[in-house]
Amino acid sequence: AVVSTQSTGTNNTRIIDIQMSMSSRAIELLNLPDDQPSFILDVGCGSGLSGESITEAGHYWVGMDISPSMLDVAVEREVEGDVVLSDIGQGVPFRAGTFDGVISISVLQWLCNADKAHHNPFKRLKCFFTMLFSSMRSGGRAIFQVYPESPKQMELITEQATRCGFTGGVVVDYPNSTKAKKIFLCLFAGTPVNNIKMPQALGNEDDNTVQYSSERFTGKKRKRQGEVTRKEWIANKKQKRRAQGKEVTADSKFSGRKRKPKF
Known about the structure:
The structure is a single chain. With about 260 residues, the protein is an alpha/beta fold. Helices cover about 30% and strands about 20% of the residues. Strand 2, helix 3 (about 70-75) and strand 3 (about 80-85) form a beta-alpha-beta unit.
């Protein structure tokens, strides 16, 4: 199950401070207009701590989380936003163009885990990003604070986001600090209306931002330099077998060509 890290202790002061700090930073990265309130989606809202930061910033919000108990806590705390019980791996149940921005704190990496036999991380990420892209207004931003287990996991997340139409990159705050280091995935739903540049990272004069995509994924893979094609691999294999004196079928225009599943 996708579990919000907010469930680790709403009453722990240190956790609350860290959560509120990351939420405030995520809202800052959204780059929302100052002269009017915006409508924000909080993915993995838990007990509503991030929602409080959104309210303090003068915006409206809706939160979604998979944990009924944490949503009960949010209701008991009488948070300003509405909360929805939902598994983000099954998509975002809102109509197109609903949200001006999206934030998520310490949640997205859970979609990379197959917690149940029928869970497929690729399909769940694709479903989430596809429906999230649809639910956002054109040019809106989605900010995900993440704790990826490995570079490969981060690559999986960013690749699926790109396939679904997002562009953007990664912002790393305080990259030289073990405790203060925070990774934010900044996604753009279509062409950003204001400030198309990636946000600046905190804690270092160097630019700690990585722009991983500027175009939507088309499904066509480019041949890397030095990469051998299927046809070339087969031709080399045949040449080696001929050198060994073995009988090999003659080359033709059909060598290395993929066959259709049905004739």
